[in-house]
Design brief:
This protein is of the alpha/beta class. It contains 21 helices and 15 strands. The longest helix has 32 residues, at 512-543.
Length: 632
Amino acid sequence: MDNRSIKKLESDLWESADLLRAGSKLTSNQYCMPVLGLLFLRYAYSRFKMVEEEILKTRPVRNGRQMPVEASDFVAKSALYLPKEAQFSYLVNLPSNVSSMGLVNVDGQPMASLGEVVNNAMNLVEQQSEQLTGVLPKSYTDFSDELLGELLRIFNNNALDEVGGDVIGRIYEYFLNKFAKNIASDDGVFFTPKSLVKMIVNILEPKQGVLLDPACGSGGMFVQTGDFVNEAGLQANSSMTFYGQEKVKYNAQLCLMNMAVHGLTGVIKSGDEANSFYHDAHNLEGQCNYVMANPPFNVDKVKAESATNAGRLPFGVPKENKKKEIGNANYLWISYFYAYLNETGRAGFVMASSATDSQGSDKDIREKLVKTGHVDVMISVGNNFFYTKSLPCSLWFYDKGKSDAIKDKVLFIDARNYYTVVDRTLNEWSEWQLKNLNAIVWLYRGEPEKYQALLEEYKTTIATLVSETGEAGLNDVNDDVFGEGIEVVKKQLKALKENSKKAVEAADRKDKKRVQTEWDEKIADITEIAKIVKEAHWLYSKFGDGEYQDIPGLCKIAYTTSDKKADENDISIEDKGWSLTPGAYVGVAPVEDDGVDFEERMAEIHQELLSLQAESNELMDAISQNMKEMGL
């Protein structure tokens, strides 16, 4: 199944499930955990069937009959064993009159509804996994049997067996993302945008050892690390040891389910003992190879004495107020992440933009931090990267094992104007934009071979996509991917849109929709190629065949202190008053043609305006209807 088909599957499943929620009396918060629980059960069943098939190939035969599979067989293959009553096929095929079947649960109590049967299935699964004990949702009696039965049927889609566990994990993340936007949980702890997580993981490049996320939310850092390690040809569960702290128990449950869906194991603690301000729940100070986190920003009213007694503050305690409280906890987090690292450890985390230049005791701590030589990379991120707030943020990276060549240097990247617009309230980095930003870090670290590999990846990917389109006019792109290729694609795309319009106008009325769909698919394919060629051109135009250079408005290498500078033209962080704000170093980019087609952009703006008007009309109709129902 190709990427477009997977995206359609994600969208179709979500729309079907969300339509059911809209028709019920359940809020998104009530609906989220049970729906994700069903997705988890669907994943577990898909993996169960796959592993069962493998086991049966070598299962011994006695008295002419093949021996049945046992729970221990699945443990040996790191898979979850599912008793019959917890298997998705059993649940989806139950008759509508469950009460007439005489079923009993694990405690021997009779079950009279489908909700009770699904709750029992969750209990049976938990009996098979210590990590999942007390984690899976058991609120399915809040659902009507009709609604729950329909949800089971939606997730019984055969395509989920065809795509396998990796894609079911992706669909789980897609649902988690959607729920995050609907629930709008506090401070982004519910779900960290995937592109920010991937940027952190890509720069830290985890391979093996201990990983801690002391504000782990729904576990995105663990999942992306697992993907990164597995793609490198290693096994995440044997190479990495995952530890997490999450004060909110609900989020910790989501984390454990998320990890389980992706085949990962870890130790996650929640509740008061997992409040990172007051507890090092796993006793990991100085023990971690990697620390990753998106902590809650600008937390106030942290008890100064309790935080001091909890330790992990190598640069001192932020100033307390008259109430003996720390008014802003950002520098507690910034200190914790450093304190957890071992002698060669790396850390990457999301932080409020204001923390890069805050004054008072924060500045004193920041000066001490910079002087260690372990601040590695600082990245400014623009607005609208979070589902729940529009404020900009920054990504901080530490590396206690920096090479001698960059030990006294810090790379600053201002990526506030480099992103992809998802919709009017959300931005992200595309996969290729993530690679490009990562490439700047490779060159700074003296790893041009990785940069060269990326250039080859661009060439190979574009050549493959061009070949698949069958458009002869695109063949010239391969001759100059990083130069004139972008103009070739633009010209072809413009011609294709003109031909599409003519073809649809000329088609019979009954064929117009089919013809439009065919042309839309062609345009979508070449639009995708255009996006990739644009990113290839962006990277190569700045760094050529692979030599780092400071780019005004984008990146700059600064020395930590004035005495480390190579010559008087260099700049140091000390010169800038210990600021870690990338914009203070990279300067302003020269004004250049952004390459946007004016007519095309105006057409897009017009469509967006029409969409907003339609949305406004729908809201007005809903308000009017509500007023009528209230008798007003």
